[in-house]
Q: What sequence folds into this?
């Protein structure tokens, strides 16, 4: 009857049951050995040793390079060298030509490709060889482009606010961001209007409005992977909910003549207030006429209206200021 023992270098024995031993090799070790010894009841004994080469677990970094490629152009994609890798295999999903990409040149850690065909997407993958294969493949999807980014797919907006919120308050700093699909860069930021200062970042601009702010325009040029540009801008206006903002009150609105027995009634308000529209309604709240004024006044024909009570609604931002109108015959 014999008994067995195990010894190891370059790792640890996690468990053994006589004739079998389970080993965990040390991270960073390049070589090791395991020795099995036996001792028998008849007095015999001995040992045998197995020497091993420990291959590293390959952890592949992400692929760097532009997120898009212009049809007819070339781009280079690369990864940092992987410790323990003896070679690298670069591939495309379903082969090179099926996605309109062709290899121009490869090195161990980079590949240069050219694009052809129509716009679409392609996936580049790289696999380091020579290790244990843990997490040994990484991929990146790139977009083939044939034309500038449509302006309709680009957003300029205040960070932290709804993309439809185009109001600002005086003496306040806002971060204006731009979002564009497959954009390579944003540049040529322009700021005009009521601002005291601004700072331009990679895909944003910080703007501080003046104490008497009423208007701001922010423009930007977006460049795609083809080097083609799209330029657009966004207007921002003073919000009526800002602290200290002048709100239109009912007593600030003048309606004359009132009562009205003439052909026309005129509605006026201070020129410091922006009224988006004025509506004339009957006593049943039915809209009879709506005007979008270009100045601080609006006029309505009332000579054909029956005698009675009517109402004028002035729309200022999200507020409605109401005035009563009496028509006499």
A:
């Amino acid at each position: 009857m014999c008994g067995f023992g195990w010894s190891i270098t370059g790792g640890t024995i996690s468990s053994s049951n006589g004739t079998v031993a389970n080993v965990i090799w040390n991270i960073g070790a390049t070589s090791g050995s395991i020795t099995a010894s036996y001792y028998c009841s008849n007095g015999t004994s001995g040992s045998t040793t197995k020497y091993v080469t420990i291959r590293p677990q390959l952890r592949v970094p992400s692929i760097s390079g532009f997120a898009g490629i212009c049809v007819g152009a070339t781009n280079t994609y690369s990864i940092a060298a992987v410790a323990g890798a003896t070679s690298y295999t670069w591939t495309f999903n379903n082969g090179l030509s099926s996605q309109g990409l062709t290899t121009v040149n490869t090195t161990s850690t980079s590949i240069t490709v050219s694009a052809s065909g129509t716009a679409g997407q392609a996936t580049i993958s790289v696999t380091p060889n020579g290790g244990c294969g843990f997490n040994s493949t990484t991929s990146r999807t790139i977009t083939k482009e044939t034309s500038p980014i449509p302006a309709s797919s680009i957003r300029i907006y205040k960070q932290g606010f709804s993309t439809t919120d185009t109001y600002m308050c005086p003496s306040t700093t806002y971060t204006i961001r731009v979002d564009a699909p497959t954009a390579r860069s944003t540049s040529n930021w322009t700021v005009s209007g009521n601002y005291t200062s601004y700072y331009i970042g990679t895909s944003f601009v910080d703007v501080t409005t003046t104490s008497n702010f009423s208007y701001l325009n922010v423009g930007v040029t977006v460049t795609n992977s083809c080097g083609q540009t799209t330029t657009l801008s966004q207007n921002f206006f003073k919000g009526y909910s800002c602290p200290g903002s002048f709100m239109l009150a009912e007593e600030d609105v003048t309606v004359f003549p009132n009562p009205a027995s003439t052909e026309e009634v005129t509605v006026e308000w201070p020129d410091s207030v922006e009224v988006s529209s004025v509506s004339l309604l009957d006593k049943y709240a039915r809209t009879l006429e709506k005007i979008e004024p270009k100045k601080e006044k609006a006029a309505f024909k009332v000579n054909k209206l029956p005698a009675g009570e009517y109402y004028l609604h002035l729309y200022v931002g999200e507020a409605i200021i109401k005035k009563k109108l009496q028509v006499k015959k």
User: Anything to note?
Assistant: DSSP finds no helices and 27 strands in the chain.
